Amino acid sequence: MDQRTITPGQVKALAASYGVEYAALMAVITVESSGVGFNPPTGKIIIRFEPTWFKRLKTDWQDDTVHTTWENTGVGNQAAQWAAFDNAFAESADDAMKSTSVGMMQVMGFHYDELHFENVGQMWDFAKVSEANQVELGLRFIKSEPVLMLALQAKSWELFALHYNGENYKENEYDTKLLTAYKKFI
Questions:
Q1: Which of 3, 10, 21, 161 has the fewest beta carbons closer than 10 A?
Q2: Distance between CA 138 and CA 147 in Å, rounded?
Q3: Measured between alpha carbons, how far is residue 14 from residues 20, 21, 38, 87, 135 in Å?
Q4: Is residue 116 in some structural domain?
Q5: Nearest CA among 82, 83, 119 for reference residue 102
Q6: Is residue 87 part of a domain?
Q7: What is the three-class DSSP state of 175?
Q8: CA–CA distance from 70 to each of 66, 107, 165 (Å)?
Q9: CB contact set of 41 (below 8 Å; sequence gap of 6+)
């Protein structure tokens, strides 16, 4: 087993240390990343680059006519995600990292400060070490948002989905997917 791969024991220990049920934590991990933190063919961390966030953070993005690949990403396609990210990174490394969710729990880079990192690069470095670190990162984020922690502890999937995935969560049936995944682990 790859040393970066999280074990069920590690997930249970992390869940217990944050006061959440193992099955509830596994539901989030399963829905967010299908239970993997690193892309098997490449070994790279699982990411989702968000062009809309990049445009918000890098307000002069239209001035660059060379780096435009980032404007189109292929959801679920890690090769396309990395091509877009790498292109945005060439334009503005910090803004690209802040505009990307990483790892098993897909935490957005712009949350680095509230998760106690000095900069977004430190957050990424932490997540690249292991899936256990990625789950720790997700739990730190959930803990930093009291409504998320309460929703996860209560297994209030609609409320959790709204605050973790955004107001369009119903379009992707995020809450239903969480409930279905939860039932597999109880």
A1: 3
A2: 14
A3: 9, 10, 19, 35, 8
A4: no
A5: 82
A6: no
A7: helix
A8: 11, 19, 22
A9: none
Whether 169 and 185 have beta carbons less than 8 Å apart is answered as no
Domain count, the chain: 1
Return d(Cα 28, Cα 139) in angstroms, integer.
10
Q: Does residue 28 form part of some domain?
A: yes
Listed range (67-76, 88-97, 111-120, 153-162) with the worst mean pLDDT: 67-76
Q: In angstroms, how far is CA 87 from the centroid of its own chain?
A: 20
CB 102 within 8 A of CB 45: yes
| Each residue's pLDDT tens digit, 90-148 | 989 999 999 999 999 999 999 999 999 999 999 999 999 999 999 999 999 999 999 99
**Do 47 and 82 form a contact (C-beta atoms < 8 A)?**
yes
d(CA 45, CA 34): 13
C-alpha count within 13 angstroms, C-beta hemisphere, residue 141 = 26
CA 28 – CA 11 distance, rounded (Å)? 12
User: Residue 20 falls within a domain, yes or no?
Assistant: yes
Across the chain, where does the E strand assignment appear?
47-49, 100-102, 107-108
Q: Are 108 and 50 in contact (CB under 8 A)?
A: yes
Report yes or no on whether pTM surpasses 0.85: yes
Q: Is 150 in a helix, a strand, or coil?
A: helix
